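Hi V.,

You were right to ask for the full record rather than a summary. Here it is.
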Amino acid sequence: MNEPQLVAALRSAGCVFAEEEARILLDEASSPAELMTWAARRMAGEPLEHVVGWASFAGLRVAVESGVFVPRRRSELLVEVAAREPAELVVDLCCGSGALGAALTVRLPEAEVYAADSDPAAVACARRNLPRERVFAGDLYDALPTDLRGRIDLLVVNAPYVPTEAIATMPREARDHEHRVALDGGADGLAVQHRVAAHAMSWLRPGGRLVLETGRDQSSRTEALLRAAGLSTSVETDDEIGGTVVIGRA
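Predicted structure:
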């Protein structure tokens, strides 16, 4: 299959960025047989990143495995905001592939970066992108070593924030191929954010920051959660990439 044929096949399957995806498939496939297999998987709706095994994020090639949340470009705003101040101890909570932690390892080279997720597939994937011994499995803060409590300079979180009923309206790449635990934010989309905010003060050092991704239309409610937890707050958005983050400071 040559490039024009592949582009046409991808476009007919509904791939919006058919030309870009065709080039990636052609560059990454090790044989014509693998290319045909990969093209079929993509046309069946599997995310391109799961097919080729990596995602481009914040200038990095991040390993991504089947079922694991694919890092979105909008999350690059979180990295930008988080990296504006120095930090010695960073935690990527609800880490998924560990993309945020990996990007901040580059942006903040002096920092110790830890990560945690409740999904075993995500933990295994994050251990490919971050030092294995610093990636933990478990429910939010319960996963972290207790000696980090009260010492965290920077806590970055992309917790699931899609309302349960809205998952059915998501693109099939997400709703059919990413684990639901990485998407489902409960009835109002804020269930996991509420739990993150409620205990943030006990894990952050004085002056430490929580940088939390959220939806544009949810930002005021997310900000209220952080304020109720005792954090001073601000909101930043980036219209070009569709990113919104709420910053809370202890």
